[in-house]
Amino acid sequence: MLAVAWRAAVTAITLVGCRQVLGFDDTEVAELGAICTGVQGGNVTLCSPDAPVCMTLDGKTDFCTASCGTSPQGPDIQPPATGNAICASLASSGTPACGLADVADPATVTWYCEILCGPAGGQDFGSCPPGLTCTDGICR
Q1: How many separate domains does the chain show?
Q2: Domain membership of residue 39 as a residue range
């Protein structure tokens, strides 16, 4: 099962896949949170080499993201210490964080970037990129 692990609520995510890019036009902007919804689900060809994974949190809208590290499975799994810095380098909207966990592997958790949004705990995490909606503090 894929889930948001360091949050109280568990959110299912669906990974569509990765792609290798040959000749990608670096003048195009396709960052964390860029929409990659295709005709029948996610389309990784709409993602940049920096955010090459297309996933959905709501089963409707797919967005580009990137892995922000791994950590061992255990009773108190935490994202890697460098994960938030990796995510911050990929986003210009909301507050990027290393917080989506793929817990399918019994030994290792693979973490992916998410975008936090809206007000929480006296702080405003900002707004979502175009095409995503802030729901329960996460752009979806």
Answers
A1: 1
A2: 2-139
